[in-house]
Design a protein that fits this description.
about 325 residues; alpha/beta; Rossmann fold; seven-stranded mixed beta sheet; four-stranded antiparallel beta sheet; 10 helices; about 20% strand; globular; binds zinc ion
Length: about 325
């Protein structure tokens, strides 16, 4: 090694020591480690490592695992992967593959029809509704058939183009920021199985609150973080709960943590429901229904339901 080579190493080492002394993290490649729960500000504890379909921080090393974090205050789960990796995953995921459009439509339509009947039947006539995570616009199709106008938000540009070609009248945008000129005017925002991919749910909830008119409605569907944390702790090595407790989601929200984030973003929580109809068929569908009924009857204390729905109203 040359003298100048030694010099660079000494400077780099001194910089690293100084950074540690000042409490600054030594920069790694990728984004900085997560410091506090985005929902409630609670501290994270790492409860294990989970396989990631997104390509985690260690993907380059071929490990393919990411830290699984649990909030000590609200109990929510979070997989520590970079936002860029999640967006790249959504670009290639089968949900957004045009080859699979009929399969996804058939699989989703009983659930989406139930959602419309159960939670969106009393929207004002000709309401303006945003579908956050719209994919090919399957929910928008049902809402437009009921006379509403729909704007789909979808990060996958290929899915946006296919949705607009299939459904004349459906407007698609890449992110909520594109809707800023309509602030304070929207009647409803629906986010089914989509908020658990975003890096900062609170930032997105704040954007949603700004877009809705007072009295406007937010309907979300999320996976059950409390159930998944429990299943992760109890499951044996090699089971899918032990290897991929959140499926392909980055968050498993606890009701308490998500409620805190929704309320501090300018909403009033109206309904939390565990019963979901049409989400899955066959035996899984039966499990969804039975566990949902039990969770609803116990007001969430026996929350063995895989997911839950929330309706919140903009103050
Ligand atoms: Zn929390």
């Amino acid at each position: 090694m040359s003298a100048s080579g030694h010099g660079r190493w000494v400077v780099a080492l001194a910089g690293a020591v100084l950074a540690m002394a000042l409490g600054e993290p030594v920069a790694e490649s990728g984004s900085a480690p997560l410091r506090a729960c985005d929902l409630c500000g609670g501290a994270w504890e790492e409860i294990g490592r989970a396989a990631t379909p997104h390509g985690g921080r260690e993907e380059a090393s071929g490990n393919g695992k990411a830290p699984l974090l649990r909030c000590r205050r609200c109990g929510s789960l979070r997989l520590d992967v970079s936002p860029a990796a999640v967006i790249a995953y959504l670009e290639r995921s089968r949900y957004n593959d045009p080859e699979d459009i009929d399969t996804s439509r058939r699989a989703r339509s009983p659930f989406l029809a139930w959602i419309c009947d159960r939670f969106l039947a009393d929207l004002p006539p000709r309401a303006t509704v945003v579908d956050f995570g719209a994919s090919f616009g399957h929910l928008g199709e049902l809402l437009m058939a009921r006379g509403h106008s729909v704007i789909g938000v979808e990060v996958n540009q290929r899915a946006c183009r296919v949705a607009e070609e299939r459904l004349p009248g459906l407007q698609m945008v890449a992110d909520l920021g594109a809707l800023a000129p309509r602030a304070g005017t929207l009647d409803a925002i629906v986010a089914l199985d989509s908020l658990y991919y975003v890096d900062s749910p609170r930032a997105v909830l704040g954007q949603m609150a700004a877009l809705l008119r007072p009295g406007g409605r937010l309907l979300t569907r999320n996976t059950n973080g409390s159930l998944r944390a429990l299943a992760f702790r109890l499951s044996s090595r090699g089971s899918s709960f032990a290897t991929r407790p959140l499926g392909d989601a980055c968050w498993g929200f606890s009701v308490a943590g998500f409620t805190a984030a929704v309320e501090t973003s300018g909403f009033e929580v109206a309904t939390v429901a565990f019963l979901e109809v049409g989400k899955q068929g066959g035996w899984r569908g039966l499990y969804y229904r039975l566990s949902g009924i039990i969770a609803d009857l116990s007001r969430g204390r026996l929350a063995a339901a895989p997911g839950w729905l929330m309706v919140a109203v903009k103050r």
